[in-house]
Write a structure and sequence with these properties.
596 residues; alpha/beta; 4-stranded antiparallel β-sheet; 20 strands; 36% helix; binds flavin-adenine dinucleotide
Length: 596
């Protein structure tokens, strides 16, 4: 079936919906999503959205800018970071005016909580910058934006799985999607296309990411000759529920929760003496691994405890002299935990049988967030090379994009911010682009490549390999060798294994050969995307012989600005991954060593 729109947005998470709201004000816009929109991963975000409102104490967008650059280990592009942190304040109020039910201070202002890496730049003490709606901030953002889209008559194609990007003469012409309910292929002819498909945490075995976060957008882009940027940087969040990976928000530590080893010791005291448990995620994740390696994991296993029991938290508030703004000693009560972290309390009770009010929670690092992705400029325009040449009509925003505002490591609360700020900017620029350009014709048989891919998966008559085995082996090898700690031999082993898995992928057996709701074939297709993401990550990780942010090489444990203060770019050429690089934009802040 054939459809024609000015702008097509792939993905209905926060980035896609914000872009849709803005694009639909000016041009004919459709949103395609493989999930029903409100099931997008944005809905699971817990802790908050960063903006220097200064509702509790002094704060400024410039401090937010510096914290983000420092947190990124100086790999973020500083012009982009500045835009994000300065536009943060207005976009929070914009969401508030749309009806987002933020928690409130006693005076009725938007309440804010501390989060890792967000500081008062003068005192270096944590500053309350994360705007939140209990521990359901993402849920509220997603619901609010979706309601606005419905109110403004945005056209949705729910449960349409995009398989290919149509490109002719280097210009975007649309996308091809399969309607999940019928198995029918649809061609969407458009002037501008935005990828807002989210992350790919499913590359790793322990992850906070939803089942559907499989890197479809970047895999499609890579297959169409578009490079991916900084793919070696993938964030491991320090506090996933042991073995399950389900996220426990950093907001727990923001409220005073502390990490404790088998000896009952608050070990972040020694790794980050000033900011302690609120150090950047890369630092805390490595500290947990090092504690485990030193035999201080709880019960001799590979986890530690996250302790938010009021008696523990209040003890450390007293020890460290932490006070309320009015000078009284800070306190947390069981009621505070229930009120500010209701979902977390619910998760640990349900999944672990652990009541966080009276027991510590077993946690381990969990694959969480893609810093890298499809390279874009500050208007969401996809850029194709070292010189930032834009590809006409193609946009990316949200976790799938690399602007780059997070560099080598993202600060908590900056993704909900990123998706809104750059979703909005992309929507605005798509309108401009569509108004200035004509709709160019489609190539012949635009759906041919997508059809071939599905038929190849359905038609592997003699296949024996199971998708589930390939997925599990990929996830294990990536967790072991391309996770929190990396070194040359291990990464090479992972690359060899991935080659073997790609080869076995060609010989898979699928049970369901039908057309309607054939999730078997779509999950197999997603596995192909995951294998692409895994390979690019491993190849880029092998090349980067330094340690920076989320990428830690045991054989090159220092940051090496002389050789590596640059973004990596990766292309798929003749079946292989080819690497290049481009400079980091540095405006106000010269790289310094990160000290905590
Ligand atoms: C558990 C958890 C907690 C988090 N907490 C926070 C937090 O407190 N603060 C913070 O700043 N960040 C947080 N993050 C990160 C943040 O939530 C995400 O980075 C962000 O929401 C991503 O939004 P997005 O719009 O880019 O993508 P998503 O919300 O992931 O949406 C992706 C969309 O793409 C669609 N899609 C994907 N592939 C296809 C395809 N092939 N065809 C059609 N549609 C497709 C999906 O249907 C979906 O609609 C958290 C993340 C997780 C996993």
């Amino acid at each position: 079936m054939y459809h024609k729109y000015d702008a097509v947005i792939v993905g209905a998470g926060g980035a896609g919906l914000m872009a849709a709201l803005y694009a639909s004000r000016g041009v004919n816009t459709a949103v395609l999503s493989k999930l029903y929109p409100t099931r997008s991963h944005t809905g699971t975000a817990q802790g908050g959205m960063g903006a220097a409102l200064g509702n509790h104490e002094e704060d400024s967008p410039e401090w937010h800018t510096f914290d983000t650059i420092k947190g990124s280990d100086y790999l973020a592009d500083q012009d982009a970071v500045k835009i994000m942190c300065y536009e943060a304040v207005d976009i929070v109020y914009e969401l508030e005016h749309m009806g987002l039910p933020f928690n409130r201070t006693e005076e009725g202002r938007i309440a804010q909580r501390p989060f890792g890496g967000h500081t008062n730049n003068v005192t270096n003490q944590p500053v309350r910058r994360a705007c939140y709606a209990a521990d359901r901030t993402g849920h509220m953002i997603l619901q609010t934006l979706y309601q606005q889209c419905i109110k403004h008559n945005v056209t949705f194609f729910d449960e349409f799985h995009v398989l290919d990007l149509i490109v002719e003469d280097g210009v975007t012409r649309g996308v091809v999607a399969v309607e999940i309910a019928t198995g029918e292929l649809h061609v969407f002819h458009a002037k501008a296309v935005l990828f807002a498909t989210g992350g790919w945490g499913k590359v790793w075995s322990v992850t906070s990411n939803a089942h559907t976060l499989t890197g479809d957008g970047p895999a499609i882009a890579l297959r169409r000759g578009i490079p991916l940027e900084d793919m070696e940087f993938f964030q491991f969040h320090p506090t996933g529920i042991y073995k399950m990976g389900i996220l426990i928000t950093e907001g727990v530590r923001g409220e005073g929760g502390v990490l404790i080893n088998s000896g009952g010791e608050r070990f972040m005291d020694s790794y980050a003496p000033t900011i302690k448990d609120l150090a950047s995620r890369d630092v805390v994740s490595r500290a947990i691994y090092l504690e485990v390696r030193a035999g201080r994991g709880v019960d001799g296993k590979d986890y530690v405890h996250l302790d938010v029991r009021p008696e523990t938290v209040n003890h450390y508030f007293d020890r460290d002299g932490i006070k309320n703004p009015d000078g009284t000693p800070r306190r947390i009560t069981a009621e505070d935990i229930e009120a500010k972290l209701p979902d977390i309390a619910d998760f640990t009770r349900t999944y672990l049988g652990v009541d966080p009010v009276s027991q510590p929670v077993p946690v381990q690092p969990t694959a969480h967030y893609a810093m890298g992705g499809i390279p874009t400029d500050v208007w969401g325009r996809v850029v194709m090379d070292e010189k930032n040449t834009a590809m006409p009509g193609l946009y990316a925003a949200g976790e799938v994009a690399c602007v780059s505002v997070h560099g080598a490591n993202r600060l908590g609360t900056n993704s909900l911010l990123d998706i809104n700020v750059f979703g909005k900017r992309s929507g605005i620029d798509m309108v401009r682009f569509c108004q200035e350009n004509d709709l160019l014709p489609l190539p012949k048989e635009p759906e041919a490549f997508a059809r071939e891919q599905l038929e190849a998966l359905r038609g592997q008559q003699n296949g024996r390999e199971r998708a589930a085995d390939i997925r599990r082996e990929m996830q294990d090898v990536m967790m072991d060798y391309v996770g929190v700690f990396r070194e040359e031999e291990g990464i090479k082993q992972a690359i060899d294994k991935l080659k073997e898995l790609q080869e076995r992928y060609q010989r898979m057996a699928l049970d369901d050969k039908g057309r309607r709701f054939n999730t078997d074939v779509l999950e197999a297709w997603e596995l192909g995307a995951l294998l692409e993401m895994a390979e690019v990550t491993a190849v880029a990780a092998l090349a980067r012989t330094e340690s920076r942010g989320g990428h830690y090489r045991e054989d090159y444990s220092k940051r090496d600005d002389e050789n590596w203060l640059r973004h990596s770019l990766a292309w798929r050429k003749d079946g292989n991954i080819e690497l290049g690089c481009k400079p980091v934009t540095i405006t106000d802040y010269e790289p310094k060593e990160r000290v905590y």
